[in-house]
Write the structure tokens for this entry.
Amino acid sequence: MSKTASLFSALLCTLIWGTTFIAQDTGMDDIGPFTFNAVRFFVGFLAVTPLAFIFERKNISKSLKKDKKQFINLAVLIGFSLFLGSALQQVALMYTDVANAAFFTIFYVPLVPVIVFLIYKKPIHWSIWPSVILCVVGGYLLTNFYSATVRIGDTLVILGAFFWSTHIIFTGKIIENYNLPLTIGAIQTLIVAFLSLIIGLYFEDFIWSNILKEKFQILYAGILSGGLAFVLQIYAQKNISPAPSAIIFSLEGVFATIAAWILLDQILDINNLFGCLFILFGVLFSQLAPIVKKN
């Protein structure tokens, strides 16, 4: 895959992620968040698995000769991170709006280098600290702090951003050594579907007729986001260096906000708009400052 194709994959992935917030938000009218995720990611698994079987079946045994145990460990970590990130995000949408959820989710961008430092002892560039300050200020302006329920939702999304960070980090690690993006995508969606189903069966009413009422949202979030977009992310992280890929992924919040404005009439006031700008500036600065310094 060429660099241009990889950039396009990352941009398309981000567009799908951003617009999927609408499906996630409107898809819980008749079912709970864990039921939605269980069905959504199982649909994603069904969409990706045939492709993995067709295109990667011959490469699996050869790729796993390197270190099968490492592959299994990383695949489980990726699946578990995706489960926690998506679960917290989905529950949060019951308490906050799409714009808030989307913009607080991109906190994963400044978090990634911090977690990489803690796990792999890679040094943190000085630009991360002003970026974190910009994101915190932006979060204050974006959030409607007078609403207790919105505060709960935003807190859940910020917590989920940590697990989106570990998902990106472990995805980058596994794709360095194992060129099996479709197989990895199928495994992680199955893990998320299984864990979501267990919790959904215990805490929620798993009613088939209600699930069918949300079929269009589930199919969009499942096939495009749960299946295609996460595979595109894996392709992008293999062929694009972290800085430009993180910049593209940060546009997820922009796409989500535009989609919420067009489809859900969720208009942001002037403080919210400044909050969006502060967060975007923080995200972009954390990625661009190291590049400028090198040049």
